[in-house]
Amino acid sequence: VLMSYRIRSNSISRNKFKLVKYQWRVYRELEDSGDTCEAVAKRLGLRAAAVRQIKSRVGRMVAALEERLGE
Fold first, then answer.
1. How many CB atoms lie within 10 A of CB 18?
2. Is the pLDDT of residue 59 over 80?
3. How far is the C-alpha of 15 from the C-alpha of 21, rounded, in Å?
4. Is 51:61 a contact under the CB 8 Å cutoff?
5. Is 41's pLDDT higher than 70?
6. Range list of H helices, the chain
7. What is each CA distance from 21 to 6, 34, 42, 55, in whole angstroms?
């Protein structure tokens, strides 16, 4: 066995739909509040780097969708 790992049943990353929904919620919280990544991270109990990464990832997804829809 080269590697073994444990998959938790309630993990966010196990269910990709839940993961996208969670990332969208963090992104909306950030955009709607107008706060910094650090303030939102503190409020949600996350690391600021994680919030910045989510903002970047979801921002790229939104831009790609807008481009596809011609907006």
1. 13
2. yes
3. 10
4. no
5. yes
6. 16-33, 37-44, 48-69
7. 23, 20, 20, 13
pLDDT tens, residue by residue, 1-26: 787 777 777 776 677 788 888 888 88
> What's the token pair of residue 53?
């990464």
CA-to-CA distance for 45 and 43, rounded, in angstroms? 6
Predicted confidence at residue 71, as pLDDT, reads 60
Tokens found for residue 26: 């963090």
Q: What is the pTM of this model?
A: 0.63
Angle between helices 48-69 and 37-44 (to 10 degrees): 110
Considering only CA atoms, which of 42, 50, 49 is closest in space to residue 22? 50
> Token digits for 9?
């049943």
> What's the whole-number mean pLDDT along residues 54-61?
86
